[in-house]
Amino acid sequence: MENGKKVKVLIVGAAFAGDLHMTGYDRCKDIAKVVAICDKDESKVRALAREYGLEEYEVYTDYSEAIENVSCDVVDICLPNFLHHEVAIEALQRGRHVIVEKPLATKLEYGKKILKEAEKAGKRVYYAEDWIFAPALIRAKEIIDEGAIGDLLYIRARECHSGSHSPFAQTIEYCGGGSLIHLGTHPLAYVLSLKENRWTELSAVTSGGEDANMLHKGLEGEDWAMCTLKFEDGTRAMVEAHYITFGGMEDIIDFYGTKGRIQIDLTMSSPVKCFSIPGVEYSVEKAEITTGWSRPAVDEKYNLGYVDEIRHFMECIIEDKEAMVGLRGIDGLETLRVINLAYESAREGKRIVNDRL
Ligand SMILES: NC(=O)c1ccc[n+]([C@@H]2O[C@H](COP(=O)([O-])OP(=O)(O)OC[C@H]3O[C@@H](n4cnc5c(N)ncnc54)[C@H](O)[C@@H]3O)[C@@H](O)[C@H]2O)c1
Fold first, then answer.
1. Nearest atom (ligand 1) to Cα of 304
2. Which fold has domain 132-303+337-353?
3. From the CA of 285, how far away is ligand 1's center (Å)?
4. Which of 6, 129, 213, 259 could lock onto 150 through a cystine, CB 3.0 to 4.6 A?
5. What does the alpha-carbon distance between residue 27 and residue 42 come to, in Å, rounded to a whole number?
């Protein structure tokens, strides 16, 4: 890109994830400009733009029309999972880079098609895994790298809450699975990035879906899942993702080393403690109630990594470079491959060895 030019962005999908990304763009106006927003529900486009004080922007309700007409450098895909590949492929074919929300796609074959198309078009796929930019996780990595907990032996990471708000998360066709693909993508992509995808074996268990589920019998995919992994250097990890956690989203990561340990609570460790009889307007993502004692989050979107993730993508586009490990298209694809293998492991009750190493 020309020196001093701002990256022009078309956001597709103006709901929950669209809002997370808008916070990122709002904080990097020096290098990026949202020039258009598309959502099949126009009122959501207007509401999102109003919330962030966007004045000059184009409105679309059809993503093909938006991709065809908007002059932009990148299409940021914040749509339900089943649309990621269709929209990414169309955008790449029209010569735009793409940012794709997690998971890369609902099926591995779709994910592969996205990467193939990017290669053909000479454009990049930026995979939006916010955990990699969570400041607490960056600090943990510094501590591990300085040797303060010795050699890393084991990582336990989980994202859990009481169920997705999105109607598109309820069926396998639209979501790709249940809690493992929808929530487990974060801890999985994170541990894979720490070890540069060099996993050797995995095994997983899930609740199975529908009547076999623990709590959400109407959910086609599983409402509880865990996956253990072993890496080439011997480190082990356990990833957990479920919908049986009330009281707000739980993002907890523990690191165990030969000389110490680190504990991180990304969502419930706000320095603010509040007791409220009427309830605060907002405390933490997915909290069902906010009365009584709560821990209202401080700059939640920054602390979960969305702000620096978007800035990183904008800088990569300006410098015409690939994203860092964990945020490249191939990392999104590997996370999706691991999720699919974890489903196979759970279905067939077997340990799976990585045949790619
Ligand atoms: N990184 C994270 O922490 C995080 C958090 C939430 C969601 N996500 C991901 O972001 C994506 C979107 O999730 P969400 O929670 O915002 O979903 P959502 O269901 O709340 O919203 C989806 C939006 O897409 C619009 N839409 C649906 N079909 C469309 C179409 N054909 N054309 C145009 N617009 C259409 C809907 O009107 C809606 O506004 C999903 O892939 C999800 O996995 C990521």
1. 3
2. Dihydrodipicolinate Reductase; domain 2 (3.30.360)
3. 16
4. 259
5. 24
